[in-house]
């Protein structure tokens, strides 16, 4: 019995199949949301870029480039979800879910690129005294794109929380950064019209601070997934495990994975007089209770050992 590992019982195996099908459906819906957001982001980017170039407005053109980065991140997300939704295989026995975290990391990098563009805008405004050419049409276009981005952010955050998608939530944060860039441009337009030409650079610097915080939060979340940060409280898992009849001790609890797909392994000690079959029954009960306590758990590995003499 020493070193025996529990084999999933039929009920658990059926549950895992259902979870796999649900995960596939969830990934399909996430891809659909990303595609819809991609269209919205590129409509916004095209409006800003075309009008910015026509009006010879550096800040509006730069804001359009920032929106184009939003669209590019959606393309990255669609590609990543196409890979992440693939089932586990021989080379990736734990599935491909981490590709979604890799995409989130890529979005964080893109935000960093946008932050550099904001820095260039601020430098040109403060040092070279460059500022937008103020017009009512420009303000109207910026307000229009602002409304679209606010709607996109709200919708994407809603579905990110609904489907527990780190990618959608990260991209919603990215779009929110574009909202603040647009607000900054609108504020600078107003201040320039009032006779403060360098206000554009000062506002851009303030936005850079916000964008930096957004990028840090996204990168930290993605790194947590990729570095196998613990997902469950070991003490709480041990408490659930020790409630199972026949379990004398629980130790070496480990968990990892993404928010919606967590893997757990642990060691338990049982009466050394139990047969192998009886020990596996105890382990099966542990597996069942952990699946019930944590719906996000997709796999539990229970290592069974005989209880040591105290």
Automatic annotation (TrEMBL):
Belongs to the cation diffusion facilitator (CDF) transporter (TC 2.A.4) family. One of its GO terms (cellular component) is plasma membrane. Pfam families: Cation_efflux, ZT_dimer. This is Cation efflux family protein. The chain crosses the membrane at residues 32-55, 97-116, 136-155, 176-196, 202-219. It comes from the Bacteria. It is a multi-pass membrane protein. Keywords: Membrane, Transmembrane, Transmembrane helix, Transport. Gene3D superfamilies: Cation efflux protein transmembrane domain (1.20.1510.10), Cation efflux protein, cytoplasmic domain (3.30.70.1350). It comes from Corallococcus coralloides (strain ATCC 25202 / DSM 2259 / NBRC 100086 / M2). The lineage of its organism: Bacteria, Pseudomonadati, Myxococcota, Myxococcia, Myxococcales. It is found in: Membrane. Residues 34-226 form the Cation efflux protein transmembrane domain. GO terms for biological process: intracellular zinc ion homeostasis. One of its GO terms (molecular function) is ferrous iron transmembrane transporter activity. Residues 235-306 form the Cation efflux protein cytoplasmic domain.
